[in-house]
Amino acid sequence: MSRAYHTRNFDDGLFLAIARKLFVVLPHPPFLWATGEKIGCIERERQALLKFKEDITDEYGVLSSWGGEEEKRDCCKWRGVGCDNITGHVTSLNLHSSPLYEHHFTPLIGKLQGLVPDGFRKMSALTNLVLSRNQLEGGIPRSLGEMCSLHTLDLCHNNLTGELSDLTRNLYGRTESSLEILRLCQNQLRGSLTDIARFSSLRELDISNNQLNGSLPESIGFLSKLDYFDVSFNSLQGLVSGGHFSNLSKLKHLDLSYNSLVLRFKSDWDPAFQLNNIHLSSCHLGPCFPKWLRTQIKVRLLDISSASISDTVPNWFCNLLPKLAFLNISHNLMRGTLPDFSSVDAVDTFPGFDLSFNRFEGLLPAFPFNTASLILSNNLFSGPLICNIVGKALSFLDLSNNLLTGQLPNCFMNWSTLVVLNLANNNLSGEIPSSVGSLFSLQTLSLNKNSLYGELPMSLKNCSMLQFLDLSRNQLSGEIPAWIGESLSSLMFLSLKSNEFIGSIPLHLCQLTNLRILDLSQNTISGAIPKCLNNLTTMVRKGEAETIIDNLYLTSMRCGAIFSGRYYINKAWVGWKGRDYEYERYLGLLRVIDFAGNNLSGEIPEEITGLLGLVALNLSRNNLTGVIPQTIGLLKSLESLDLSGNQFYGAIPVTMGDLNFLSYLNVAYNNLSGQIPSSTQLQSFDASAFIGNPALCGLPVTNKCLGGDLPQNPVMNDVIQDNQETVHEFSDWFYTGMGNGFCVFFCGLSGALLLIRSWRHAYFQFLDGSWGLLSRYWQLIRLDKNHCQTLAVRF
C-alpha cells in the first residue's frame, strides 16, 4: 500500500522567491546587474566586501570573481553584488545557495561557511542582503542594526543559533523602521516572538523551522503591513484568538502549522483579511468545522489537516473555492457524505484534493474536470470505481483502504497522465484491464489486497517508468512474465506475494538493477533459485542516503502565479523478522529478497551471498536442499535470515557467527547436524530457532555435544586433523630428545660428583632448595603439551 505525504508547499507568496532561486545559474541575477561602467564601486565598500570574503570559508569558489587584482577592481561586477548605477553604492548582496527541490537535485553552487561577517557598517546603502542556504553559524552581527537602508534580510537555511531576541536586538535602531522582509527560517533559533512587533514596517516574516517556544503574542496584530506570516514547524503553544489578527488587513499568507496552538474564534468572527494561502495543519481547530472560513473567498491553498475536526463538511464550503489549487482536510474525523466538488470553478488551476484518513462514506463524488491529484484513501467510500470521477488531467489517484467493489473499469486510457494509481485494500474483483498499458507515465501501481484474478496483461510492459509495483494478496495466476525484467527496468519495489503464480522464477528478473525489494513469497513457484541474482546491483550496494520511494508532483496555475509541490510517499508491507511490517519513511533503505512459501528446489546459489547490501533473506518453507553456503558470512548487513522448513543438511557454517547485525535467525526443521558454532551472535538466539534438527548439539539447544563432536565442516576438519598430527609428531620428538639428553647429562654429572667432594656437597644443597622449582617445571611442560593440543583443536 502507499499513501500521500506532503513535504513541500510553493504558493504564490513564495513564487518570487522561487523565481529568484532560479537565477542562481546566472553569473549575476538580472535585477542585480550594475550598468554604470564609468561609476564602478566605491573603494571603502570594495574593501568591506574583501574583508567579508576573508571572514568566511569558501571551499567551492563561490566568490572566485572577488579579488584585489586590477582586472577585478570593479566590485559591481562581482558575483552576487548589485550597485546603484548612479551613485556606485553597493545596494544588494545575494549569495544564497540552493536548488529548487533539495530532495531530488544537487546544489548548483557551493555553500559559504563560518560566522555571519561583521563588516556591513561600511556599506551604508545596502538594501538587500541574501545569504540564505549556506552553512553560516552564530548570530546576527550588530553592524546590521546600523544600516538605515536595509529592507530585506534573508538568512534562511543556515545554522544560526541562540535566542531569537538576541538576534533581533542587533537589528534595533535605524533598521527597526526600515526592515520590510525578514527571513530566518530553517535555523536553530530558540526563544519567543515577544520582540518581533517592534519591526513595524515588516511585510514578510518567516521564522519557520526553528526551535521557538512560548505563545503567539497578540502584539503580532500591530504589524499592520504584514502580508506574509510563517511560524510553522516550531514548538509554539497556547490560545490564538481574533485579537491576534485585528489589524492584519493586508495578510495574504498565514502558516501556523505544526505547532501546538489552539485556535478559538467567536462564531460570528469576520476577519479583516482575505487570505490566499491558509496552513493550519496540526493546530487545534475542532471539533466543529471552522465557520470563519466562509468569509475567505479568495483561497487558493487550504490545509486544515490533523486539526481535530469531527464535523461534517458544510454545503457552503465548495462555493468558497473558486480559485482552488490545493485542499487538504486529511487526518481528521470528518464524517458523512461529501458535497459535489465538480462545481468548483478552478479554471486557472489543476487542483489537488487530499481528504484521506477521515470517515467519509457513500459513493465516490465527482471532482473538477481538471483535478490533478485526488487522495481519498482510508475512508468508507463504497460502490464501484467510476470513470468520470475526474477528467484527463489526473496525475495522482489514491483510493486505497476503502470499501470499493466491482471490477476495474477498462477506461484507464482516459487517465493517460497518471503517475500514481493506488487502489489497494478494497473489494475489487475481475481481471486487470488491458487499458492499464496506456498509462505511459505511471510510476506507482498498487493493487494489493483485492480479489483480482487472471494473468497479468501483456500491455503492462508499456509502463516502462514503473518504480513501484505491488500486486500482492490477490488471486493472480499464470507464470511470472519475463517482460517484467525486460521492460520495467526502473522497478525499485516488486511484490507478487500471496497469489497463484506457477512456473519458475524467470532469469530476466536479474535485469532489474534498480530493485531494492523482491517479494515472490506464498505462490506455487517451482524450480531453482536463479544464480544471476547477484546482477541486482542495487542490492550489492549497502543502503543509500535516500530512505523513501516517492514521486514528486506539482500543482500550478497555468499563468505561473502559484506553485504547489507535493511528495507522494509509497508505503508497503514487507516480511521482516518473522512478521509483516508496514514501511513508509524507510522503505527505500531496505534490501529484501523473500521467496518463502513456494516449491523451490535445489541448492542456495553461492552467488546470492554477493548481495552485500541485503538486510533480509527469507527462503523458508520450500524444498531446498544442500548445505548452507560457507560464504554466508559475507552478508555483513544481514539482519533477518529465515531458512526454516527446507531440507538443508550438514553443519551450520562457522562464518554465520560473523553476522554481527543478525537479530533474527530461523533454521528450524531442516536436517542440520553437528555443533552450533560458538559465537556471541548465534548463542543469543532462542533454542526455537534451531528446533527440528535433532542432530544439532551445543548451546542454545539442549543436546550436548560429545567430546569428539565438531562442526562437520570438511575444510575445517582437514585443518584440525593436520594440526593434531603435527602435535603428535612434536610430542614424539620432544620426549625422545629429552630421554637421550637426560642420559648423557646424568652420566657426566654422576662421575664429577664421585670425584670432587666440594661439588658433591654444593649439589645436595642445591637439590634441597630447588626441588619444588623442578616439580613446577615438569608441570609446566605437561601443561604446555596439553595447551598445544587444545590450540590445534580450537583452530
Commentary on this structure:
By secondary structure, this protein is of the alpha/beta class. Among the domains are: 171 residues, Alpha-Beta Horseshoe (Leucine-rich repeat, LRR (right-handed beta-alpha superhelix)); 238 residues, Ribonuclease Inhibitor (Leucine-rich repeat, LRR (right-handed beta-alpha superhelix)); 79 residues, no CATH class. 15% of the residues lie in helices and 22% in strands. The protein contains 8 helices and 49 strands. It has a 23-stranded mixed beta sheet, with no helix packed on it. The radius of gyration is 37 Å and the shape is globular.
How far do the termini sit from each other?
Answer: 51 Å
Oligomer: single chain
Number of beta-strand segments: 49
| Structure annotation, total helices | 8
Write the layout of secondary structure elements.
Layout: E1 3-5, H1 15-22, H2 43-54, E2 81-83, E3 90-94, E4 113-115, E5 128-130, E6 135-138, E7 152-154, E8 159-163, H3 164-169, H4 175-178, E9 181-183, E10 188-191, E11 204-206, E12 211-212, E13 228-230, E14 237-240, E15 253-255, E16 260-263, E17 277-279, E18 301-303, E19 326-328, E20 335-336, E21 352-354, E22 359-362, E23 373-375, E24 380-383, E25 396-398, E26 403-407, E27 420-422, E28 427-430, E29 444-446, E30 451-454, E31 468-470, E32 475-479, H5 483-487, E33 493-495, E34 500-502, E35 517-519, E36 526-527, H6 537-540, E37 550-556, E38 563-569, E39 572-576, E40 579-583, E41 592-594, E42 599-602, E43 616-618, E44 623-626, E45 640-642, E46 647-650, E47 664-666, E48 671-675, E49 695-697, H7 714-755, H8 757-794
Parallel strand pairs: 3-5, 4-6, 5-7, 6-8, 7-9, 8-10, 9-11, 10-12, 11-13, 13-15, 14-16, 15-17, 17-18, 18-19, 19-21, 20-22, 21-23, 22-24, 23-25, 24-26, 25-27, 26-28, 27-29, 28-30, 29-31, 30-32, 31-33, 32-34, 33-35, 35-41, 36-42, 41-43, 42-44, 43-45, 44-46, 45-47, 46-48, 48-49
Antiparallel strand pairs: 1-38, 2-3, 37-38, 39-40
Helix pairs in contact: 7-8
